[in-house]
Design goal:
It is a single chain. 40% of the residues lie in helices and 19% in strands. With 358 residues, it is of the alpha/beta class. The chain folds into two domains: 5-130 and 310-327, ATPase, nucleotide binding domain (Nucleotidyltransferase, domain 5, 2-Layer Sandwich); 137-305, Nucleotidyltransferase, domain 5. The protein has a five-stranded mixed beta sheet with strand order 3-2-1-4-5, sandwiched between helices. Strands 8-7-6-9-10 form a five-stranded mixed beta sheet, with helices on both faces. Strand 6 (137-142) and strand 7 (147-154) form a beta hairpin. The radius of gyration is 20 Å and the shape is globular. The structure holds 5'-O-[(R)-(carboxyoxy)(hydroxy)phosphoryl]adenosine and zinc ion. 5'-O-[(R)-(carboxyoxy)(hydroxy)phosphoryl]adenosine (KG4) is lined by residues 143-145, 170, 173-174, 185, 187-188, 190-191, 280-282, 284-285, 312-313.
Length: 358
């Protein structure tokens, strides 16, 4: 007989300490009972980027408090939690270990199942917090460390259709912000700058636009922004460069999303439910959302975006991933170790540096 499932999720892969309690009722409804995220923005600001040692220290100082807060806010007694999921990778090793150790300790003391889950799988399944997921669907995952198109074919079943061959899109946003003198984490502020600028002021490159399927490349664009920044004199110039950068990203995504949809359809001929889910931190950008909505509509795909606060790192997506892995009868793994590198499609070739295949 089916029963309600309540999971504690823990996320510490980078610079957010997060914990959440998620319930899936026996009739399939999902309730986020609590979702606590503590950002380390202040810790890393003066260094202009995430410092792993400081991130780990901040996680270890906060983790107990954040987990207790999530449990308290949910109103669920600890003994009623059915399982614990913590991010096992990819991410910063010492940061991952802190969340994993906390999760394993709670799981073993309660004799409940523990799942070390893939952070990217969390982003891939986030929409499941709001709507039942219907496989297969096309996924664009755009975050600070990853940019890839995947065909999501079931829990644990991912086929990579395209990926960045150099920088992640979030990284390009963050570097552009840094070049424009915006303090870390600057990525989201590019969007604000872009609103005040003229998108046609700077002509920027769109690497491998009509080459290499739906693979992506942002390193050349980042370098071009650096070169263009030499001409930036006024505040308005900064707004113009931000707008031109964001517009170029949208032009690239327009072509590459169309290509990815085509490749996805070739893989799933006669598919009836055409769903395109966009997730990860960069998916919170309003102009990117608008652009992809339009492209999807043109190609008869339904686009879906998680609410903005769940595009960026959170533990609700990790708790849900734990629940879905449990339901898919994946083995609970108390002995699992952290995995700093953990692609969703483990069979896909490595596409950076020496592994580059164009
Ligand atoms: O998913 P996420 O929180 O962490 C990773 O798993 O990497 O994504 C963080 C990334 C950062 O690079 C950040 O600059 C970017 O998402 N980001 C944005 C926006 N909000 C966050 N990029 C562009 N526009 C935004 N509004
Ligand atoms: Zn993430």
């Amino acid at each position: 007989m089916k029963k309600d499932l309540i999971f504690l999720g823990i996320e510490t892969s980078c610079d957010e300490t997060a914990a959440s309690i998620v319930k899936k009722t026996k009739d399939g409804k999902i309730n986020i009972l609590s979702n606590i995220v503590s950002s380390q923005e202040r810790v890393h600001k003066k260094f202009g980027g995430v410092v792993p040692e400081l991130a780990a220290r901040a996680h270890s100082e906060k983790i107990d408090f954040i987990i207790s807060k999530a449990i308290k806010k949910s109103g669920v007694p600890l003994k009623n939690i059915d399982g614990i999921a913590a991010t096992a990778g990819p991410g910063l090793l010492i940061c991952l270990m802190i969340g994993m150790t906390a999760g394993k300790t709670i799981a073993s003391s309660l004799s409940k199942p523990f799942y070390g889950v893939n952070h990217l799988e969390g982003h891939a399944l986030t929409m499941g917090l709001f709507k039942p997921l219907r496989f297969p669907y096309l996924l664009l995952l755009i975050s600070g460390g990853h940019s890839e198109f995947l065909s999501v074919e079931g829990i644990g079943k991912y086929k990579r259709l395209g990926t960045t061959i150099d920088d992640a899109l979030g990284e390009a946003f963050d570097k552009t912000a840094k070049i424009l003198g915006i303090k870390f984490p600057g990525g989201p502020k590019i969007e604000t700058f872009a609103k005040k600028g003229n998108k046609n002021s700077f002509k920027l490159p769109r690497p491998i636009l009509f080459k290499s399927g739906c693979n992506l490349s942002f390193a050349g664009l980042k370098t071009a922004v650096l070169l263009a920044s030499k001409k930036v004199k006024t505040k308005q110039d900064k707004y113009n460069l931000a707008a031109s950068f964001q517009n170029t990203v949208n032009e690239i995504l327009k072509v590459k999303c169309k290509k990815a949809i085509q490749i996805f359809q070739e893989r799933h001929k006669n598919i009836i439910h055409k769903n395109f889910i966009i997730s990860g931190g960069v998916a919170s950008n309003q102009s990117i959302r608008k652009n992809i909505k339009k492209i999807s509509k043109e190609l008869n795909f339904n686009s879906h975006f998680p609410p903005i606060h769940l595009c960026t790192d959170n533990a609700a997506m990790i708790a849900l991933t734990g629940i879905l892995n449990y339901e898919a009868r994946k083995k609970s793994n108390l002995n699992m170790v952290s995995q700093p590198r953990w692609p969703l499609d483990e069979k896909a070739p490595f596409m950076k540096g020496a592994g580059l295949v164009l």
